[in-house]
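Format notes (please read before filing issues)

Several people have asked whether sequences and structure tokens are stored in separate files. They are not. Every record keeps both together, in the order shown below: the sequence lines, then the token lines. Line labels are part of the format and must not be stripped during preprocessing.
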Amino acid sequence: MSVTSADVARLAKVSQSAVSRTFSPGASVSPKMRERVLAAAKELGYRPNAIARAMISGRSGLIALLVAYLDNNFYPVALEQLSRALQAHGYQVLLFMTAPGDQDRVVQQMLEYQVEGIVMASATLSSGLARECAETGVPVVLFNRYVPSSPSSSVTSDNIEGARQLAHLLAEAGHKRIAFIAGLEDSSTSRDREAGFCKGLAEKGQALFARGVGSYRREGAAAAARQLFRAKEKPDAVFVANDHMAFAVMDVLRGELKLRIPEDVSVVGYDDVPEAGWGGYALTTVTQPSQEMVDATVEILLEQITRRVVLRRAAVLPCRLVVRNSARLPKGMGRRG
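Then the structure lines:
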């Protein structure tokens, strides 16, 4: 038979509520009583039943994470940071995977677990379902993207400014045929990066020379690179919408097309994932402040869970240009990062 909290209370000679407080994070219990309860629990082999506690309290302590893909190493790093941060606040994380177009069905499934909040990374949901979540008191935070028409909160880096700085770097280095390889066309991240990049080029008296679409996939980025660089007039620089795709582009340029980086063509990316600093890539890129983005996400979630009020908040955090060896530099500019 399973051991109950009543069994622990009898052995420790305390009330059942004292046992409950001992195993409730943040609850008030004296050190002496805690020691007695834990000793009795260890002797009996007692483990608190989180499901039963959730049914009694009406609080599951669960946060759902929804991701569409984990290929881009920015997401595994950020999701590890997010999971640790939520666990430090007493919440447990449920990870759900989704395919493109299937997000709403998976979110409905997530809600069946009585989750107290939802974080969506590399995925979005319809405005209608976002409103339904808000009406039922479940806050939703879109991580690294936003939907203007959605009531969901969002946390992003300043993609427009980061891409603008990359455009200035390439233009000031003397490049005249500057291309862009986009991510997903319906992604706010890719749209903002392209908008900021075009803005930065315009400020330097230039316009985008050529454009491809990689859809945030290695295969898509490689195909876009082949198309752009087999044209009669080739780009002399390319901004790839994230590092994950930029690595594929660099592999194609060097391995298949025998072009030198940065002597023949400069390549820049966005995210500053760990591989960007590896010697084989040494990618010039923009750092997304993943820990600060995680902190903002947790703050928004916990505030709304605690207040039991769902409000739309948008956090936009500053980013930083990291200059390495994959791009030519303006005269007098040193490398950093």
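For reference, the curators noted about this record: The two ends are 60 Å apart (CA to CA). The chain has a mean pLDDT of 90.
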